[in-house]
Amino acid sequence: MTWKELLQDALNQLGGEAHLEEIYSYVESSSQKSLTSSWKATVRHELERASSDSQNFDGNQDLFYSAHGLGGGKWGLRSFVPTVESMDITQDDSGFPEGRAVLRNHLLRERNHQVILLAKKRYLEQHGHLACEVCGFDFEAHYGEIGQEFIEGHHTKPVSELEPGEQTRVEDISLLCSNCHSMIHRRRPWLTKEQLKSLLVSV
To answer: Of these four, 50, 73, 136, 181, which has the most CB atoms within 10 Å of its CB?
Structure first.
């Protein structure tokens, strides 16, 4: 398996986007390669070589994107497209184990991405389209097909506050546009969607 293939696999398994530390942990735990002392630099180099967001892009496969801008430490896989239709989930599947402690070389708490997909599925069933629960922005209405079924899922309870085995319910997920999601995280403790809505300024 090449480095590019390994990093694609890592981001697929990590939900499409992940911080470098999460990618490192995945590579370290699953790589069949003999890792050298500079392997983390190789990971960063390979991500940049296959990303048009980077000045180091080699012009071949544009596989990755920088989720928070270069230097932000979070990368995404361009081909990762979770679909709502592929989910076979019933109304009874309203709780998911969250914050499972995974021992790799350090302790990492995992998010369960299925709960966000279920939140999207339920919102679609109720409203017929996906829109930000704060400002009402609809990605498909503004961007067409590329924006279809796109919205970000916000966990209202930080993963650091989850107890081992604690479940996240669909009701614990807010569906937000990228701007509102970023604004909710601008303060500690996080703003609620109601608080953020009250801050919206008409333009």
So the answer is: 50
Beta strands in the chain (DSSP E): 17-19, 64-66, 74-77, 95-97, 100-103, 107-110, 152-155, 167-169, 173-176
| Residue environment code for 147-169, b if the CB has 16+ CB neighbours within 10 A, otherwise e | eebbbbbbbeeeeeebeeeeebe
DSSP state, residue 102: E
Q: What whole-number distance in Å separates Cα of residue 84 and Cα of residue 97?
A: 20
CB 76 within 8 A of CB 16: yes
Mean pLDDT of 62-87: 75
Spatial CB neighbours of 75, under 8 Å, sequence gap ≥ 6:
11, 17, 18, 20, 23, 47, 51, 64, 65, 66, 67
Place of tokens 């090449």: 2
C-alpha 125: how far from chain center: 22
| Contact assessment for residue 66 and residue 53, using Cβ atoms and an 8 Å cutoff | yes
Sheet holding 74-77: strands in order across? 17-19, 74-77, 64-66
**Biggest alpha carbon–alpha carbon distance for the chain:** 56
Domain spanning 3-77, CATH architecture: Orthogonal Bundle (1.10)
Domain segments of the chain: what residues?
3-77, 112-199
